[in-house]
Design goal:
six-stranded parallel beta sheet, three-stranded antiparallel beta sheet, globular, 277 residues, alpha/beta, binds pantoate, Pantoate--beta-alanine Ligase, Chain: A,domain 2, 2 domains, Rossmann fold
Length: 277
């Protein structure tokens, strides 16, 4: 496994890779969710590149960029086990040198949900992903369904800007009790960890109501909200039942529909979703 930190070295190493090249972009602090992407990418491609970059431009000024968990040594050990070919770990000044002034911004689908709660977030995500795609030239890039809107936005960018790669989304990996795996789960104390189950419980409730024949989206959203409000540690950012492509809120649930939510447990903001289909 080769570890590279400069764009020039990454581009040089890329030339020697056998196509197709699979890419898993990450912000590190890897867990089973990331590893499911890495192992699928490994199985599907003769060459595998993983990036570790805590991207400052996708964090708001009052968000957790500084506190975001980091453990590069452990990440590298995991990636070595997965037989990764190249790990690209650029410092921030390599990706955003002085004078950096170009941004990739996708309209429409970024304006709702996460985009509405975290202004500028998706501009940071699409800019860094466009840069990583340009530098690494992957044939397939792998993203997790846990960040459903992110995957939709990246697919839109790739289609709209005619980028020459395929974007694959893989299922959310959950703890045995249902909590979606996330690097941010590490912020939760034991009481908050229990309270965080309310996210999956609300999504499961949506699934149950819909499976029992309920198609009134307002009613399903109201029941999800009521369930979450019973948890005193939870503060709701949004609960959504939306079209899985446009992310427009639905009046009637027709399938497939994306049930998603963002909830703060204490000071930790968690997101999760399920597709009703
Ligand atoms: O999902 C993430 O970890 C990040 O948003 C990504 C895609 C690596 C871009 O920084």
């Amino acid at each position: 496994m080769k570890v590279v930190t400069t764009i020039a070295d990454m581009q040089e190493a890329r030339q020697r890779l056998t196509a197709p090249v699979g890419l898993v972009p990450t912000m590190g602090y890897l867990h089973e969710g990331h590893l499911s992407l890495v192992s699928q990418a490994r199985a599907e491609n003769p060459s595998l590149v993983v990036t570790i970059f805590v991207n400052p431009t996708q964090f708001g000024p009052r968000e957790d960029f500084k506190a975001y968990p980091r453990d590069t040594e452990h990440d590298l050990a995991l990636l070595e086990k997965e037989k990764t070919d190249i790990v690209f770990i650029p410092p921030a000044k390599e990706m955003y040198p002085p004078g950096f002034d170009s941004w990739v911004e996708i309209a429409g689908v970024t304006e709702r949900l996460e985009g509405a709660c975290r202004p500028g977030h998706f501009r940071g995500v699409t800019t860094v992903c466009a840069k990583l795609f340009n530098i690494i030239q992957p044939d397939i890039a792998y993203f997790g369904q846990k960040d459903a809107q992110q995957a939709i936005v990246i697919k839109k960018m790739v289609a709209d800007l005619n980028m020459n790669l395929k974007v694959v989304t893989l299922p959310t990996v959950r703890e045995p009790d249902g909590l979606a795996m996330s690097s941010r789960n590490t912020y939760l104390n034991p009481e908050e960890r229990k309270a965080a189950l309310v996210l999956y419980q609300a999504l499961t409730l949506a699934q149950k109501l819909w499976a029992a024949g309920d198609t009134d989206a307002d009613k399903i959203r109201r029941e999800m909200l009521a369930l979450i409000k019973r948890e005193p540690r939870a503060k709701i950012d949004y609960v959504s039942l939306a079209d899985p492509e446009t992310l427009e809120e639905l009046g009637r649930v027709k399938t497939p529909a994306l049930a998603s939510l963002a909830v703060k447990i204490g000071t930790t903001r968690l997101i999760d979703n399920v597709v009703l289909e």
